[in-house]
Amino acid sequence: MTMNRIGGIAALTCAATYIFGFVLLVTEFAEIGFGTNDIDAARVVRFTVENQMLLIIWNTVIYVLNALALAVLVVALASRLNRKSPDWGTMTLAFGLIWTTLVLGAGMIGNVTTERMAALAPSDFETAVRTWEALHAVELGLGGGNEIAGGVWILCVSIAALLHRAFGKIVIGLGLLTGFGGLLTILPPLGEVAGAVFGLGAIAWFIAVGRSLLFKNET
Questions:
Q1: Which residues cross the membrane (predicted)?
Q2: Where are the domains of the chain?
Q3: What is the mean pLDDT of residues 213-218?
């Protein structure tokens, strides 16, 4: 199996993890406000105690599995771009691996936080709430609260593809939109909207990249 095909499967896996995350956000997690500014720490801790395994699965899929697939995709795209421009290929590899590391770290912290809350809350609920708030802030800083690293990587890949015709117009257009959306998450007033643009745009971009790598088309 070629690196293009492996990268294509990895891209579709990344898209699937995002879709899984969005589905849970609007269903199981809607009541506790995950993904919004209205999240209630006490309600999250209670929910964690009652749904520990669901949260472990959530963190593992959206962070850990995503990061592992992302690492493969980063290498595959860097390899493709290296044939067009070694400098751009190296730059995208660097930014991509930075993002991959942050996402993996967020998932590991998220799972440890879940385990600690489930163990601590029954005996000391207030401490559990404060601990969750502190660890959740770290998790968001690494990979859940802003999308700067991801935005920069997708933007770099898209600019390189535009300059060197490594992909077609759909991949490049979706990548530019998604990348700029990720960068705008640094602005608090635009955080939620920009985050939605990045998340939904990333799903479409991963699918387009996956199709292009798998079928060698000019999507």
A1: 54-78, 90-110, 140-163, 170-187, 193-214
A2: 3-215
A3: 77
